[in-house]
Amino acid sequence: MGMYNIIDIKRNCPNCGAKVEWQSKDLIVDGIYSVVNALKTYILNKRMSGEVHTYCSKCSTWTEAKVVKGKLRKLTVGKSED
Predict the structure, then answer these.
(1) Does residue 1 lie within any of the structural domains?
(2) Superkingdom of this entry's organism (predicted)?
(3) Which pTM value belongs to this model?
């Protein structure tokens, strides 16, 4: 189990538009430095790549997205099993 950090992305839930908190998932800087500092909030920049994810409690969906050069790509929305 990895360490997750809050990522400041000005993007709401793609399914219902509710405000959500994005977290890092295998996010790296310059292709070699892992983003693993606990209790820190990061802002995406063009040196970052990897994945981020969020859970929307309003519509019960998980969203995962690829980060390429600091931009969100390939959003995947899935319904929660609960």
Answers:
(1) no
(2) Bacteria
(3) 0.73
